[in-house]
Amino acid sequence: MDSKTAAEIISSTKDLPEMLLSEAKVAGAQLVEVYQSSTLSRPIIFEGNRLKQIETSQSEGVALRLWRDGRPGLAVGYGPIDAKTLVEKALAISTLNLPEIADLSTGSPDTAAAKRQAFPEKGQAMAVEKLVDLGRGAIAQIRTSIPEAVCEAEFSCDVEYIRLINSTGLDYSFQDTTLSGFISAELIQQDDFLCVNDGTLSRHQLDIGAVADSIIQRLVWAQQTVEPTVGQVPIIFTPGAAWLLWDTLRSALNGKRVKEGISPWRKKLGKRVIDPAITLRQDPTVGPYLCPFDDEGVLTQPLTFVENGVVKSWYCDRAHGTTGNGIRPELGDYPTPGLINLLVTPGKSDLQALIAPQKDAIIIDQVMGEGGDITGDLAVNLDLGYQVRNGEIIGRVKDTMVSGNAYTALNNLIALGSDIGWSGSTYTPSIAVEGLSVVG
């Protein structure tokens, strides 16, 4: 895919933010914020081991927030938008809301130069032909080792442009190019169905060979089905499943939930809450999940949330003690505390070293459904898991559930792995814990 500039991506609506800002002020709004998002994507889709289609999609949306007489209004539009109509919708909604104290970002630091910034573009585009070659090569690699595997895959190069302006004079923009490759391999034998999936994200190159190797290894491990060891046994989470534990901690570190008294860690600042080997942080300058400013126009920053098991800080939006973590879950939502990324400091042992000491253990690789909530309680069915016996993987376990509490597990750490990978926006190693129960 040819690289596109930010101006080319939003060429049809490049003046819309200024038009909305001006129209809202004329209509009587005292404070105004315009958030514009434009994306260009060209996914390459494989089905049944073959290239199925090459698509192109482009979307543009804008969210207008305003305050008139202290009453907030929010309206969202997609594609071609009439500025006056969108302003009228936002003003109509504001009449239904109670007055509030508005708080718009003025830039940080508050200087003329800081108020208007087009941040450096990140990422490098990849041609469609190259993405097709990567997909064909990865599928061939898997089927050379496992000929009966049926593969599906999606590869894409996505360009996203974000612009945020408001009535204080703030004008931030950023363009980001992300490469992605995801593969699933299926094996169907009589009444048994097995699906193994993996993927990678990057801004420059995709290591699809490593993804294919991972899928091959897991298919080999899963070829034999065995009975699981039930009861409380050590549990090893691969990077693809460790999010089950870290998602609970994301909730506990949310500044909004701390302020509301919901987080179990609300009174734990400066105190140890999990195993001292665990350190959690955010760095908005690394990985595929990065951004220079949040959805409220506050500059993002590196943060350490838990250091050696001790709570050091929360992540917040402007309403709850801003750290540059005001994120819109959807374009039409108000900003709320959200993480840019979550980085888990790895240990020194690879996955095999975590497995070797275990007499009986279960490896969780893929799960069905969602993880636990802020209470930490877990009860998940394994989509893909393995039985470890005498330090070796002996086969796949089926119809197996793992339950317990994430906080308990993270206070009963066996070890963190040295292998590390992205699971959503969490960069995590494998992790071995005790304190969870297996039901077969």
What report would you give on this structure?
- With 440 residues, the chain is an alpha+beta fold.
- The protein has 2 domains: 6-128 and 158-178, PmbA/TldD superfamily (PmbA/TldD fold, 2-Layer Sandwich), CATH 3.30.2290; 225-440, no CATH class.
- It has 10 helices and 24 strands.
- The strands form 3 sheets. Strands 10, 11, 12, 13, 14, 17, 18, 19, 20, 21, 22, 23 and 24 form a 13-stranded mixed β-sheet that branches.
- Strand 22 and strand 23 (426-433) form a beta hairpin.
- Helix 2 packs across helix 3 and helix 5 packs parallel to helix 6 (208-221).
- The longest helix is centred in the N-terminal third of the chain and has 18 residues, at 128-145.
- It is globular.
- The model is unreliable at 1-7 (pLDDT under 50).
- Belongs to the peptidase U62 family.
- This is Peptidase C69.
Characterize this entry briefly.
The chain has 440 residues and is an alpha+beta fold.
